[in-house]
Amino acid sequence: MSEYSVSKLNKVVRGPKRASYDVATINTILDDAFLCHIGYVYNGEAIVIPTAYGRKGNKIYIHGSLKNRMMLSLLASGKASISVTHLDGLVLARSAFHHSANYRSVTIFGHVEKIEDPTEKMEALACILNHMVPEHWDNVRPPNQKEFKATLVMAITIDTASAKTRAEGVNDEAEDYETSYWAGVVPIKQVAFDAIADETLSETIKMPKSVENYIQKNK
Q1: How far is C-alpha 199 from the chain's CA centre?
Q2: What is the reported pTM?
Q3: Burial 72-105 (b: 16+ CB within 10 A, else e)
Q4: In this structure, are residues 105 and 163 in contact, taking their beta carbons and an 8 Å threshold?
Q5: How many Cβ atoms from other residues are within 10 Å of residue 53's Cβ?
Q6: Each residue of 176-200: pLDDT tens digit?
Q7: Is the separation of the CB atoms in 33 and 86 below 8 Å?
Q8: What is the rounded distance in angstroms from the CA atom of residue 23 to the CA atom of residue 163?
Q9: Taking the CB of residue 164, how many other CB atoms lie within 10 A of it?
Q10: Measured at the alpha carbon of residue 19, what is the angle toward residues 17 and 24, in degrees to the nearest 5?
Q11: Domains of the chain
């Protein structure tokens, strides 16, 4: 499948020219982030929570404690909606009305399942950590039995999704281009700085290559 089919659920209504249902485009936006926002209902109240995730194929993995109310609510409903957004720039127009932002965003709709198989569960935890810093799982102590049992891991299989992006300049009213108001775009980028070693770390322990690579890629 190269594209998700368009339905009432995932159709981008406002600004449809900025929409994409291409699977590769959506996966790229997902892979460029580490935090997502998940909506759920708890005791009749709508709640949105940011959480870390990892992606493998058409599955999004998340984890939490066994009593995590978001996780339990999602399992009870069997469905989930996830959003991811990158802010790429502030679009400052001549008029207040046309101020905007450049961004890349994805909204996902999927069904939820608890990961029971121990091997798949450990692989899912590795996927989440490696999504944060690629190839870093081999440089950490894996969960011990107590930690492993205390962690609830879920897979959200993507049933459908859509992306929406804006990557352009200012769009003002024709008459405003003759005014003396300043307009332009302020690009925004998330960057990594040099790592700060834990103060209790032995001087003989060197920084893993995975961390070095991450910093160099994201400077």
Answers
A1: 30
A2: 0.92
A3: bbbeeeeebbbebbbebbebbbbeeeeebebbbb
A4: yes
A5: 21
A6: 999 999 999 999 999 999 999 999 9
A7: yes
A8: 9
A9: 19
A10: 135
A11: 16-188 (2.30.110.10)
